[in-house]
Amino acid sequence: MTRRMTLSFSVRDSKTCTTQVMTWTRISRIRLQKDHFVSLTLAPLKYLPFYLLLKFFSRDNDSEEDEDMTIKPDDSIIVCASNDDDVSHLEIWILEVLSDGTVNMYVHHEIIIPAFPLCTAWLDCPIKSGEGKGNFIAVGSMELAIEIWDLDVLDEVQPAAVLGGIADIKKKGKKKTIKYKKDSHSDSVLGLAWNKEYRNMLASASADQSVKVWDVNTSSCTVTMNDHTDKVQAVAWNPFASQILLSGSFDHTVCLKDVRYPSHGGYKFPVSADVESLAWDPHSEHSFVVSLENGTVTSFDIRLASSDPTSATKPCFTIHAHDKAVSSMSFNPLVPNLLATGSTDKMVKLWDLSNNQPSCIATRNTKAGAVFSVSFSDDCPFFLAIGGSKGKLQLWDISSEDAVLNKYGKYAAQKRPPKS
């Protein structure tokens, strides 16, 4: 069995890499093959544009060049971490819906990054100041360090902050001694999650089997948790209880922890295969889903969790969603019980999870190749961003599906919900 090396969307072998999608609201990721998009992230318009939010670039200069560089309030932003010919970079895409309904996408600017990216997470917390809002993206890689890049700066050459990494390498004969920075991960960073309530807090998952929580204002690690016995693939904060963190591992468990009490063993949810991704239900504070390497998706209610390691928590449901690994999932931010899944079987599916009786309502081969990431937009919730092994970002307007319109027509009427 091949192992992925990361992510939010991770890499399964040396020929694949993670891709995350940064688009409309929250962070999402997409895993793609080498020489293709590595990672995508979406950011919400209400925070600026979108997941990996690029702040709106507004300029007073009336030149044509400045007009092309200006991000309009109705634009959405998609950030793709990619690797082409061994050069890694972040591509900041603009998505605009024209007056006739036509969707136009183009690359606004790029940022060259020094290491092969495996996962990303958008931050709106100003690095080192803690006041106001910023527009940053955290990037995890095989280089152990987590780099945080300012998306509002064109031609950026250095990260705004670096969390962990290698401090020094000494060679004596054939022996090599590596000295890590304080509290650094000692292996690849496979997953990242930003805390929307405690905005300076960033969680990371690593192949070194640990989960860490970082304070981006001080670039320091505040909590290290070692609750898994194999690589940790994904982390996710509970959107209703921001101190609660999920982590999913190749040890076939999901761990639920209150990070205020890191020494507590937490609650374990056993699963049948390697964890691919995690997602909290944004419409239910007690529910989350986990997708697995064997093609299944399982839902749990955290109220049923037991701290007794001999007592396995019973899932609410398990579905064989795809023929291959379910690499990514995304809950619709507007429509309750609507879940999108993407798989290395090249298919993207939409599921109605009502009453814990899942049913597939739409299936599409988006021509993305093996799908590594899917993500709904918070601002345009009927747009689904998709990334895959063909290295081409795809966009699916799910309101074009009759089954979706028949079931969710009342929601489709408000494609862009009012801003709070």
From TrEMBL:
Gene3D superfamilies with a match to the protein in the record: YVTN repeat-like/Quinoprotein amine dehydrogenase (2.130.10.10)
Placement of WD repeats on the sequence: 182-224, 225-260, 319-361, 364-406
Top-level taxon: Eukaryota
PROSITE patterns per UniProt: TONB_DEPENDENT_REC_1 (PS00430), WD_REPEATS_1 (PS00678), WD_REPEATS_2 (PS50082), WD_REPEATS_REGION (PS50294)
The entry's keywords: Phosphoprotein, Repeat, WD repeat
UniProt GO BP: rRNA processing
Record-linked Pfam families: WD40
One annotated Gene Ontology cellular component of this protein: nucleus
Keyword presence, Phosphoprotein: yes
Name of the protein described by the UniProt record: Uncharacterized WD repeat-containing protein C17D11.16 isoform X1
Species, as recorded: Nicotiana tabacum
